[in-house]
């Protein structure tokens, strides 16, 4: 079973010693840890090793051989005579290894249940604990340990074992173990004194001798585990490098093994904790931090976790997982929370996690915080005319900077010198010469306060950024250039799909014969645009015989069945009764003003039930409308599109994907990034994926006209492509758009525009899976490159210009790349890759000198772009032959670069490059074939 791990790993991972991590915390962050080859966990915390294995990483169970704590389920069955001593430092009993029945007990009661649950690897700890006893026979104890290991191999074929110490028994079992571990080579933890300590030189030299002997005599890899305070990331990194330089596998972590340490690879933290005050908005969906800030962070590759200051705030927000902390308050917090927030903020500053403050600190800074932040509030507001002293280029991003009428901040001075060296972003001086600083980059991070963050446009619902959020977040949080997982693009082309909310299916169109809207949609859109993947939903109460229109149901259901049989249409539910308000605990907008507002379609005798809306509507479609081999994949949220955690959980447990919400509606009328939504929102760990672009209801003033207003979506497509590709193309509308001639005409206009663009068509479900993959994607620095692991849905990394372009032949799991406005889009062949860039190669040693870098660096042919999904990428004969498959929803169009002397075939037929109206470059050949799927072969001269 365990060997299956190595079947799914890329070849470059097999040639190197495995990257190993240990995490004994109750909620081990497996989404980050999956980038390691082996992850040792405390198995009592409910992990699923079988499911985890699918990602290419393997969970090993921590098991203590010679010690047991009373919390273990088998503790009460251990005979008192087997208890040799007590380890007071860890509150455990030391077990005698000599009893004849001990190996069987350990195999059947300790390892057996874990093997049954799917574990195939085990980290055997406390092998030397018998030495804590006052009297013991060392040879007999060691012989007992050997019997335990031998029985494990007999009982569990293929078992993988890591020994923690047990140096004396290694020669006798070296053919039965995978590696040997030891703790505290450079830095250790003194359990008795409860403190971190550097290892004494003489102790280190003795341990080094043992480890080198095992490596050289027994030919086994060595894992060295050291302990460093979790806030000291620099020492953690330096210690791991020292261990790595010795040729050992490093793992440097905290004393409790509860954080993501640094090993032979270093996880790049992709999470940002955003702290907000929930009392400022009806729900998180409407908080400024979510509406405005999450999108820039998502675009830069980061996942956002939220903490409401009204609840208990998380402790230990370290840089192992978090790139930084952001706070966004619009004013002062309630007095009951200011002391807590003050103390929490000081604790985080002590941990040295970068902090970015937006809007307001939430309370008046006291003297202690003044010194730690290096700023203090102005004693009085400005007087007279204010003159600008400093305006950083990041200020005035979408709205000009205007001086504030109220007090801001000034540096804390000691002997005429600032206590912290900061850089002002916006600073004014009044007629007294008093400085008023509204934003600065500081050693601890940075701040920008109102009115220099986001301002409202008078007389509208619009807002504008005063500060460039990308620049400020990058500088305040010290965000390094990283390959950003990108959900907008695949194989160099922008994604495109269409999804339809079922509203208005029975409505009669203002067209000859007054056909119902569903039939118009079928005939005028679905049958005419067969190369556009369509996601179609229906509302059960609108079309079912037991719904609102029983007299029309037969016709309506027949139309839906015809739609769902079409190969370019996937099936979604738009619920049973179309709830307008999903979370009844959150009254917002119309629902806060009018207690009588309709909560859903008026279905006689029905009271809203979440399971009926989600699961019941899905069952209706699957049993009455869907073909036998095609079922509902997606729940498209209706109404306010703001489901609570309960609704999201029901959807997840039903095996459904979900989408809608987000309200991205940027246009030339409202040309602001505040009108671009995030990837989605998480509630209690359940993810709602937002629609990339909003629907026609917004562009037509809530369907009050003009009915051609949806043509503005073309502006949204353009403005989410340039200067940044922030969103894919999503043609999103309701069925009722086809009831108006103007609405139908503009739909054709939008579809015609989309099919004329060089896009990459996908189904909505494929996009949703990419967003889900984004939220659990793992990225790590690995030697001279980057190691990534995902689910294989998200296939694009976006390299910022400073990282250069990928060396395709020097990387693994990389098929090619294409330049974009913000950098380079890297095309991945699957869920695992090792990416080396041209810039990294110039600075690093030859890849042959590093454990994980392949030897070849010469650039050969590579995929430039394609409108289809890439599969079976295979490079052979030292790069002379490349084979892969492409599968699309339209006739294939693809380009290859650096293949000028190569023959290109599709399904064994020689291809001739096409002439492009706008050539992609002198080294790029473009090809088109009539088939939507093909086996592609590139045969190049031998190098």
What's a quick, concise take on this entry?
This protein has 943 residues and is α/β, with parallel strands linked by helices.
Mean pLDDT: 93
Which structural category fits the helices and strands? alpha/beta
Number of helices: 24
Low-confidence regions: 1-15, 841-857
Distance between the first and last residues' Cα: 40 Å
In percent, how much strand structure appears in the residues?
Answer: 25-35%
Rg is: 31 Å
Largest sheet: 9 strands, mixed
**Large-scale geometry:** globular
Strand line-up across the major sheet: 1-2-3-7-8-9-12-13-14
- Helix coverage percent: 10-25%
What report would you give on this structure?
This protein has 943 residues and is an alpha/beta fold. Helix content is 25%, strand content 26%. It is built from 24 helices and 54 strands. The strands form 13 sheets. The protein has a 9-stranded mixed β-sheet. It has an 8-stranded mixed β-sheet with strand order 17-16-18-19-27-26-25-21, with helices on one face. Strands 31, 32, 33, 34, 35, 36, 39 and 40 form an 8-stranded mixed β-sheet that branches. A hairpin with a 4-residue loop joins strand 5 (83-87) and strand 6 (92-95). Helix 14 runs parallel beside helix 16 (553-565). The protein is globular. The two termini are 40 Å apart. Residues 1-15 and 841-857 have low confidence and may be disordered.
């Amino acid at each position: 079973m365990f060997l299956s791990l190595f079947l799914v790993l890329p070849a470059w991972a097999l040639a190197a010693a495995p990257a190993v991590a240990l995490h004994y915390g109750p909620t081990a962050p497996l989404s980050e840890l999956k980038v390691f080859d082996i992850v040792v966990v405390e198995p009592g915390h409910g992990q699923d090793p079988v499911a985890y294995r699918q990602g290419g990483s393997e969970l090993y169970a921590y098991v203590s051989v010679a010690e047991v704590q009373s919390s273990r389920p088998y503790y009460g069955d251990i005979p008192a005579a087997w208890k040799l001593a007590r380890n007071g430092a860890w509150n455990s009993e030391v077990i005698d290894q000599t009893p004849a029945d001990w190996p069987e007990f350990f195999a059947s009661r300790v390892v057996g249940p874990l093997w049954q649950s799917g574990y195939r690897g085990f980290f055997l700890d406390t092998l030397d604990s018998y030495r804590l006893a006052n009297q013991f026979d060392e040879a007999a104890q060691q012989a007992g340990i050997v019997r335990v290991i031998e029985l494990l191999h007999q009982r569990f074929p293929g078992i993988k074992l890591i020994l923690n110490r047990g140096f004396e028994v290694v020669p006798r079992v070296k053919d039965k173990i995978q590696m040997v571990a030891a703790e505290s080579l450079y830095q250790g933890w003194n359990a008795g004194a409860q403190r971190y300590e550097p290892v004494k030189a003489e102790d280190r030299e003795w341990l080094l001798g043992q480890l080198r002997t095992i490596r050289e005599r027994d030919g086994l890899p060595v894992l060295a585990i050291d302990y460093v305070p979790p806030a000291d990331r620099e020492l953690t990194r330096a210690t791991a490098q020292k261990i790595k330089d010795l040729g050992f596998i490093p793992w440097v972590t905290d004393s409790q093994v509860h954080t993501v340490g640094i090993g032979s690879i270093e996880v790049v933290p992709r999470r940002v904790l955003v702290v907000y005050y929930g009392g400022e908005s009806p729900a998180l969906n409407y908080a400024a931090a979510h509406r405005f800030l999450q999108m820039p962070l998502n675009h830069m590759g980061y996942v956002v976790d939220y903490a409401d200051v009204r609840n208990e705030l998380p402790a230990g927000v370290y840089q192992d997982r978090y790139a930084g902390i952001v706070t966004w308050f619009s004013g002062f917090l309630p007095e009951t929370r200011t002391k807590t927030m003050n103390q929490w903020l000081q604790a985080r500053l002590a941990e040295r996690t970068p902090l970015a403050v937006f809007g307001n600190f939430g309370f008046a800074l006291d003297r202690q915080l003044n010194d730690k932040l290096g700023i203090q509030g102005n004693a009085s507001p400005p007087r007279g005319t204010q003159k600008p002293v400093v305006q950083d280029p990041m200020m005035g991003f979408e709205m000009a900077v205007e001086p504030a009428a109220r007090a801001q901040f000034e540096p804390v001075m000691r002997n005429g010198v600032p206590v912290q060296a900061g850089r002002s972003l916006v600073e004014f001086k009044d007629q007294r010469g008093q400085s008023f600083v509204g934003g600065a980059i500081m050693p601890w991070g940075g701040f920008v306060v109102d009115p220099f963050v986001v301002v409202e446009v008078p007389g509208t619902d619009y807002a504008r950024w005063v500060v460039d959020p990308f620049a400020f977040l990058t500088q305040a949080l010290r965000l390094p250039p990283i390959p950003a997982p990108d959900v907008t693009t695949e194989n160099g082309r922008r994604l495109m799909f269409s999804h339809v909310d079922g509203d208005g299916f029975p409505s009669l169109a203002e067209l000859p014969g007054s056909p119902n809207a569903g039939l118009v949609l079928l005939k005028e859109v679905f049958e005419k645009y067969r190369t556009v993947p369509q996601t179609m939903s229906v509302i059960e109460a609108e079309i079912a015989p037991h719904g609102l229109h029983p007299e029309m149901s037969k016709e309506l259901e027949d139309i839906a069945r015809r739609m769902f049989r079409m190969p370019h249409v996937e099936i979604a539910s738009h619920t049973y009764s179309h709830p307008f308000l999903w979370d009844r605990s959150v009254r917002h907008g119309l629902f806060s003003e009018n207690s009588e507002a309709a909560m859903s379609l008026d279905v006689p005798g029905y009271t809203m039930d979440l399971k009926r809306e989600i699961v019941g509507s899905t069952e209706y479609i699957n049993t009455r409308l869907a073909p036998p081999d095609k079922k509902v994949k997606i729940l498209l949220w209706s109404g306010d599109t703001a489901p609570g955690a309960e609704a999201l959980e029901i959807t997840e447990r039903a095996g459904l994907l979900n989408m809608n919400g987000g309200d991205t509606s940027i246009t030339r009328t409202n040309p602001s990034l505040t009108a671009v939504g995030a990837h989605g929102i998480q509630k209690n760990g359940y993810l709602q994926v937002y629609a990339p672009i909003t629907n026609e209801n917004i562009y037509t003033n809530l369907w009050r006209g003009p009915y051609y207003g949806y043509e503005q979506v073309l502006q949204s497509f353009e403005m989410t492509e340039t200067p940044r590709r922030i969103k894919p193309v999503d043609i999103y509308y309701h069925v009722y758009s086809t009831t108006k001639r103007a609405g139908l005409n503009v739909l054709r206009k939008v579809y015609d525009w989309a099919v004329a663009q060089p896009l990459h068509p996908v189904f909505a479900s494929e996009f949703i899976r990419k967003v889900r993959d984004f939220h659990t994607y793992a990225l790590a620095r690995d030697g001279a490159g980057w190691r990534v692991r995902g689910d294989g849905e998200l296939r694009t990394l976006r390299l910022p210009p400073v990282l250069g372009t990928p060396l395709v032949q020097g990387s693994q799991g990389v098929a090619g790349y294409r330049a974009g406005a913000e950098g380079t889009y890297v095309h991945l062949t699957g869920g695992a890759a090792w990416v080396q860039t041209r810039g990294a190669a110039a600075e690093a040693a030859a890849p042959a000198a590093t454990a994980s870098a392949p030897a070849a660096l010469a650039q050969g042919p590579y995929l430039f772009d394609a409108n289809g999904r890439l599969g079976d990428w295979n490079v052979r004969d030292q790069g002379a032959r490349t084979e892969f498959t492409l599968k699309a929803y339209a006739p294939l169009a693809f380009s290859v670069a650096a293949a000028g002397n190569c023959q290109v075939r599709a399904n064994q037929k020689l291809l001739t490059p096409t002439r492009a109206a706008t050539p992609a470059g002198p080294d790029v050949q473009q090809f088109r074939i009539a088939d939507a799927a093909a086996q592609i072969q590139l045969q190049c001269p031998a190098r």
